[in-house]
Specification:
It comes from Massilia mucilaginosa. Pfam families: AstB. By secondary structure, this protein is of the alpha/beta class. The chain is built from 16 helices and 15 strands. It has a three-stranded mixed β-sheet with strand order 2-1-15. The protein has a three-stranded mixed β-sheet with strand order 3-4-5. Helix 2 (about 40-55) runs antiparallel to helix 15 (about 395-410) and helix 4 crosses helix 5 (about 95-100). The chain binds N~2~-(3-carboxypropanoyl)-L-ornithine. N~2~-(3-carboxypropanoyl)-L-ornithine binds next to loops.
């Protein structure tokens, strides 16, 4: 077994971060619609998390933002003329679509792709499939740049395979790693891959939410397991509980997180809790590992509190001594039930013995917590040496990126600002400079 480390690739928040209420079913996105955002603060909050986790010895990297506004989208739907003409007319006639074209949503890199480490795949390479995110217009073209970015970072085909997104239709609705968790005794050993879905396209009798959309289908999860060449004895598919999707759990990572042999979850997370635990235990037996389930009861933390605090949208990180830290948003400490629960959790003598909290308010107001902001990529030593090195977080890169943010980012953005042609110029200048900083000259197609 090769030794491996888990890298967390955090999304660097782009300069057009704003609150446009684009995600029906995501409570925070809906309740903060049209409030003013602070892109500079958002980027700095994300960078502070990256630096702190890197300083604590966790493998940390940065995933660059995407070019905004998405002129390709705007032109394809009939806005013509100069860039300034396109923006002015889109603002007048279709301000919500303009906001879609400007969304900084690629910051939530848990939705960029599904990743299977090389220990799990048929050909011994690490496999990535960009998520089509086709449930929401503003996210539906992210996969084009995500594929391009992943191919730039993981270019060596001896080690990596980057698949294009699944066909962009609702039957294959795919939200990436937000509905995927990997369990294993160590990051380098064979693991169990756990896929959760909200509905089944071709089985109308399967559970499905009534009020809010289910973004992930079973068909999509199965396609990814096939593409990555996973062993069916070590792959588990599970239905989310549709009732909690209807309470704002738009991704499974809002109500469960896994790491190592630990599943930290709310009792209402799954349609059939007992069956899920059994399936995971059986699959883990194939890699001689026992599941350690940390179950949170509704009586202790109601679903509404889990959604508003983002308790489960935490990062569960294995420390060098084998114990785990839980990386939480500060909202968890502001919620009485959650704060009390967390105190007991770390005192319980279980696997989680430390809390690390961050102020991620800017992202949280759009429904993105610590776990949404990162894509986990477990890499062997040879693989981490083969990936692009310019994105690995260090004090020097942190300082450079803080200065870069200071140079290009605004500290106030509201809906009317999206009509300002100057904002588009600022965004493209920022990204051009960023691709130089990260040593990725061809990263963007800025023509
Ligand atoms: N994993 C967290 C994803 C959050 C994301 N929010 C958004 O896109 C909100 C954008 C807005 O409303 O401006 C989503 O719902 O997919």
């Amino acid at each position: 077994m090769m030794s491996a480390r888990e890298f967390n690739f955090d999304g660097l928040v782009g300069p057009s971060h704003n609150y446009a209420g684009l995600s029906f079913g995501n409570v925070a996105s809906f309740s903060n619609v049209k409030s003013a955002s602070n892109p500079r603060e958002a980027a700095l909050q994300g960078l502070a998390k990256m630096r702190e986790l890197a300083a604590r010895g966790f493998a940390q990297a940065v995933m660059p933002p995407q070019a905004r506004p998405n002129f390709r989208l705007l032109r394809r739907i009939g806005f013509t003329g100069t860039d300034a003409d396109v923006l002015a007319r889109a603002y007048r006639e279709a301000p919500v679509i303009l906001a879609c074209a400007y969304s900084a949503s690629p910051m939530w890199t848990a939705n960029a792709a599904t990743v299977s480490p090389s220990a799990d795949t048929f050909d011994g390479r690490a496999h990535f499939t960009a998520a089509n995110l086709n449930n929401k217009l503003h996210r539906s073209e992210e996969h084009l740049q995500s594929t391009r970015t992943l191919r730039a970072l993981f270019a060596d085909e001896r080690h990596f395979a980057v698949h294009e997104a699944l066909p962009p239709t609702s039957a294959f609705g795919d939200e990436g790693a937000a509905n995927h968790t990997r369990f294993s005794a160590t990051h380098g050993g064979k693991g169990v891959e756990f896929f959760t879905y909200g509905r089944v396209e071709f089985d109308p009798s399967a559970p499905a939410p009534k009020k809010y959309p289910a973004r992930q289908t079973l068909e999509a999860s199965q396609a990814i397991a096939r593409l990555h060449g996973l062993d069916s004895a070590r792959t588990v598919f599970a239905s989310q509980n549709p009732d909690v999707i209807d309470q704002g759990v738009f991704h499974n990572d809002v109500i469960a997180v896994g790491n190592g042999n630990v599943l930290f979850y709310h009792e209402q997370a799954f349609h059939d809790e007992g069956a899920v635990l059994n399936a995971l235990r059986n699959a883990l037996a194939n890699v001689e590992t026992d599941l350690s389930a940390i179950r949170v009861a509704t009586q202790v933390v109601p679903v509404g509190d889990a959604v508003s605090s983002y308790l489960f949208n935490s990062q569960l990180l294995t420390k060098p001594d084998g114990t785990m830290a839980l990386v939480i948003p500060q909202e968890c400490q502001e919620n009485r039930a959650v704060a009390r629960y967390l105190e007991e959790l770390v005192a319980s003598g279980g696997p989680v013995d430390e809390l690390i909290h961050f102020d991620l308010r800017q992202s949280m107001r759009n429904g993105g917590g610590p776990a949404c902001l990162r894509l986990r990529v477990a890499l062997t030593e040879a693989e981490s040496a083969a990936m692009h090195q310019g994105v690995i977080m260090s004090d020097a890169l942190y300082d450079t990126l803080v200065a870069w943010v200071g140079k290009y980012y605004r500290d106030h953005l509201e809906p009317k600002d999206l009509a300002d042609p100057q904002l588009a110029l600022e965004c493209s200048a920022a990204l051009e400079d960023l691709s130089r900083i990260l040593g990725l000259p061809g990263l963007y197609d800025l023509t």
